[in-house]
Amino acid sequence: MQLSLHTDHAVKFLICMTRYSSRSASVQDISGRCGLSAQEVAGVLHDLDRCGLIERSTAGDGLLRLRNKDPARVRVGDVIRCIEAARPATRQPGAFAQMFDMAHAAFMEALNDYSLSDIAHLSGGEVARTGFPTGAFGVSVMVPG
C-alpha cells in the first residue's frame, strides 16, 4: 500500500507532537524537530485540525497540542484514514477494485494495532531525542523498506 506524501507529512508531524503531548508547542518547534518546511506544515495543519487531532491555543499565541493528550490512544490507521479522506485518490473501476478496497481496509485495520506513541518508540527513539534524520518520512519510519 502506498500513502501520499501529504499523509506521510501529517503522520510525521503527529509523531513529533508526541514529545509535547503534555503541553503546547509552536508550529516552528514541531516542524523543526521533524525536518518539515513551513510549506509542508501548512499543507497538513488544516487536515489535522479537521480530523480533530490537534487543537490550537485559545490565547492566540499559535501554540498547538494533541487534542487527545495521550498519544497511546491515537490509532495510526484512524489517523491515516482521516487524512486521506480529505484528499481522496481517484478510484479506478475494474475487476480488481473490490479486492483492492478490501486489502486497503485490512491494511488500515492492521495499522490500528499501533498508536502514535508506539510508532514514536518504533522509530528508534529519534523523535524523543533529536528528531528524524534528514529525509526520513513518518510512515517509512514504521514500515521498513
TrEMBL record:
Pfam families: Rrf2. It comes from the Bacteria. This is Uncharacterized protein.
